[in-house]
Write a structure and sequence with these properties.
- With about 375 residues, the chain is an alpha+beta fold.
- It folds into 2 domains: about 170 residues, Beta-Lactamase (2-Layer Sandwich), CATH 3.30.450; about 110 residues, Mu homology domain, subdomain B (Immunoglobulin-like).
- It is about 20% helix and about 30% strand.
- A 5-stranded antiparallel beta sheet has the order 2-1-5-4-3. The protein has a 4-stranded antiparallel beta sheet with strand order 6-7-11-9.
- The longest helix is centred in the middle third of the chain and has 18 residues.
- It is globular, with a radius of gyration of 24 Å.
- The two termini are about 30 Å apart.
Length: about 375
């Protein structure tokens, strides 16, 4: 798998939009031209790519109430694999342009597809799509770290080092099979001394004050009918992300997760390779088994020797007996405008102790 082009775009609600970084790989573009033959579509200039991406993502012309390419009912956005319609010389369709966004950053790339353009192959059969998304996700973590809004100086410094980073992880447009979870080691990073073996997941050493940041994101996916004749469906899963700055080659850090009163046990737990030891009862808890009330209910202790970059310590599922969040919405027309209202309610067993709650209601084919 190779990448023809890569773009990193900064935007704030469609305003002050600019391409902060772009890279094209001429060797990959030459291969794309040879493979496509007469159906080859060249990658346009930065300004054209920016305008096409913003239009396809629905971020352009925010002052206009209707834009055909953005709002027409016949237009279906195929995120994260977009289709860009290029006009002018060499016009045609650029596909698949992969995009992911977080906060004010949009990351996009155009992978090389080693398959005939017609008939168009399904996305699931293209290895370049999954590898391209993995590359973008790794770059996103490198640029943003564990938060969604890095300081401007930190983002600028990471963008400045991105050319050297790409030389290591994506030479000549071909991503290497390397973990893309954070900044790679640089020549200025202190290296271990003595007989201690450097673990494979650690790229250098930290010097300075010890800081450990832990973030827990729990997701509730639910279909609620509001009808006693139909049973509601829901599942709960979460991830624990860490960023540790601790001195030493193999420092010992332990993160403990404690369930709230009457909390449901964690199941299907997957941990990062840096976790040094774990109770067998934690790893054997599975959502496939029938819950009989005897499952291990914590506290869950995760001792590990952390890497320098942000990483996912563990992921889990939980079989809760009732939906943690109940919701309903109304959609009605008033004065030629659609009014959309959402009501959310926490179940009485859930304590409002989280920092934020984000609700997403999918409207398919819109």
């Amino acid at each position: 798998m190779s990448v023809r082009a890569l773009w990193i775009i900064s935007q704030e609600k469609g305003e002050n939009v600019s391409i902060r970084f772009s890279r094209r790989f001429s060797t990959v573009e030459h291969r794309a031209k040879s493979l496509a033959g007469s159906s080859y579509v060249a990658v346009p200039d930065e300004s054209t790519v920016l305008q096409l991406l913003l239009t396809e993502l629905g971020l352009s012309d925010s002052h206009k109430s209707y834009v055909a390419l953005r709002d027409d009912c016949l237009h279906r956005q195929r995120s994260p694999a977009l289709e860009l319609c290029v006009d002018g010389p060499g016009k045609g369709l650029l596909w698949p342009v992969l995009t992911i966004s977080q906060g004010s950053l949009i990351l996009a790339c155009l992978p090389l597809v080693d398959a005939p353009a017609e008939p168009r192959p399904p996305l699931a059969s293209l290895l370049s799509v999954s590898q391209g998304l993995t590359l973008l996700a790794g770059l996103q973590t490198f640029l943003l770290g564990s938060g969604s809004k890095p300081d401007n100086e930190g983002l600028a410094s990471r963008l400045a080092t991105l050319p050297s980073v790409l030389l290591q992880i994506c030479p000549l447009g071909t991503p290497l099979d390397l973990p893309l979870l954070g900044a790679p080691a640089t020549s200025a990073a202190p290296m271990p001394t003595g007989n201690q073996k450097q673990p494979a997941w650690k790229t250098g050493l930290h010097r300075g004050r010890a800081v450990v940041n832990v973030a827990l994101i729990e997701t509730v996916r639910s279909m609620q009918y509001g009808n006693r004749s139909r049973q509601d469906l829901w599942d709960v899963y979460g991830t624990v992300t860490c960023k540790c700055e601790v001195e030493g080659v193999l420092p010992n850090v332990t993160v403990t997760l404690t369930l709230p009163p009457n909390g449901s046990p964690l199941q299907d737990i997957l941990v990062h390779p840096c976790v040094t030891s774990l109770d067998s009862s934690i790893l054997t808890a599975s959502s496939v088994d029938n819950y009989d009330g005897s499952a291990f209910s914590g506290p869950y202790k995760f001792p590990f020797s952390p890497p320098l970059e942000p990483f996912r310590l563990c992921s889990y599922t939980s079989q809760v007996p009732v939906p943690p969040i109940l919701g309903s919405y109304q959609l009605k027309e008033e004065d030629n405008q659609l009014c959309f209202s959402v009501n959310l309610k926490l179940h009485e067993s859930v304590k409002n102790s989280f920092e934020y709650c984000e609700a997403r209601l999918p409207f398919f084919n819109r």
